[in-house]
Amino acid sequence: MFTIGGTISNLYGGKIGIEKVLPGAMKTGLRDARLAGIVSEAGHYSNATLAGWLGIGIENLHAIPTDRRMSMRLDLLEAKLDELYREKTLVAFVIATFGTTDAFGIDDIATIREIIERKASEYAVTRPHLHVDAAVGWVSCFLTDYDVSGNPLDISPATLALVERTQKATVGFRTADSVTIDFHKMGWGHYPSSAFIVNRREDLARLARTVDEIPYFAEADYRHDPALFTLECSRPGIGPYSVMASLNGIGMNGYRMLVAHSMEQARQLKERIEKLDFCKVLNFDNPGPSVCWWVLPRGRDAKQIFARFERGELSAEERTQYLKEVRRLFNKREATMDPAQDARLSFSRNVGYSPHGVSLPSWKAVFFNPKTDDAVIDRIIASIEDVA
Predict the structure, then answer these.
(1) Residues 283/105, Cβ–Cβ less than 8 Å
(2) What does the pLDDT average to over 342-360?
């Protein structure tokens, strides 16, 4: 079904999870049940929105810390499930992320599925609904069937290796119960063209109303009257129409070219930034279109400082100083950049990885524009060197 945005699509996943562990909640409410949801620490902030709106409560939404690739730590997921189940709390849903908004972190969907099934069986409870927020990363699936041996698009060897890693990761979608995709990001589509897709049709029945409950839809049919099982009643058709236009206009190979181009440009920028002693790429191994990095003043060894940060060897004063320098230099570039030739970058206060509980800020570039070329990357590097 098409929705007005990724937040609403994620909300559907959470709602189905509630109905699974607390059947009939649609009519009777949550009553006195203790409910919880689990997400990644690098997940989208809309997860808190849906927890609040669905009545679980933001305080009962548990964020699992991530590893260096901004992927949910599976050992900590297991530990959190043990903790919640021992407390007799019903875990309604686990929301994995395929392509975090900042750093394109990818959660191991298949292993998460195995863990939640095993733990639910161990505690004799209903398995949580496994929803995947792939609003950003779903376009990787265009590469799932790409012939890497024949390589008809002549993708460079270094980027082809990223394509192969992506193909292994996308297999995990087959184990998900539902997924969110957004065309207004890398789908090159219109804003209200987000979609919520279920793996099994019967899951939508948990949201269903009867014709008796909506008497002015006396002849309603589930096949073409989504008001029977969706949050919205009336809604515009611009979402599905724009998706149809994009899919048919760009085509499978067109999307493959766009996605591979974004990955190629991101890889090149990462490699060039990493060569600068005063810079550190934070998501070097992630195979998406995003590049997240630190810029410190010349003379600083950014790689060594980051390693000490991870090992917990920096004092609070040192951490504060370095993180302020990252932001100060970003602001300096913003103030001195030439909009006619400099690409607009963005800044994140939390890249999705928090060693020792400290959130890492970062500069960020995301390659969406198919006209981006090597000259743009050259200018980004020059602007970094100018401000450092």
Answers:
(1) yes
(2) 95
